Each structure stands twice: as C-alpha cells, then as structure tokens.
C-alpha cells in the first residue's frame, strides 16, 4: 500500500493541517491554520485531532510527516502527507507566519 501524499499547492484551502515539527521549527514559521503536535507527542495527543476529516500532515521536508501519516492511517484515521513539507509549502507561496516576531524562516 502506498502512502497518501499531496503536493503543497494541491492542499485544499480549508484543509485540517497538522504540523509535527519541533517547537523551535514551529515558532520560526508555520502555516497559519495548522495545529502543532510534535511527532514525539502524537501518539499521546492523537485524540486532539478530528476523527471525521482528513488530516494533512506537514514537517520540514516530509520525513517526519510521512511517519505520522503512516501511523495515523494505521490506526484508522485518514491522513495525507504533504510532499516536501514546509519547505515546499513556502516555496509555492502558501502563507507562513512566525511566532518569534521576526520574518518567517523555514530552513
């Protein structure tokens, strides 16, 4: 079975976004509507995610989000990996905000 994956530009405008990066990465720049749950906390906090809609998962370049997507689908949730993560998200001009007061930065 292949993992569901989508390009950053194809993510629906009203998508439920889950960012699984670490707090420092999140603070430096993230999608405005995203929910932040670091990958290491996901199993413990999975009930915070909607069970009735698709979750689009982001990280920096797609590795951690691929793990999160695979696990979420394994437990019966509907999840899709965003190919290229926040780097692709920013590169195609999707909105990015910072929590630091500085310009958003996606390394």
UniProtKB/TrEMBL annotation:
Residues in Rhodanese domain copies: 11-98
SMART domains attached to this UniProt entry: RHOD
InterPro entries: GlpE_sulfurtransferase (IPR050229), Rhodanese-like_dom (IPR001763), Rhodanese-like_dom_sf (IPR036873)
Parts of the chain that traverse the membrane: none
The name this protein goes by in its record: Rhodanese-like domain-containing protein
Organism (species): Microbispora oryzae
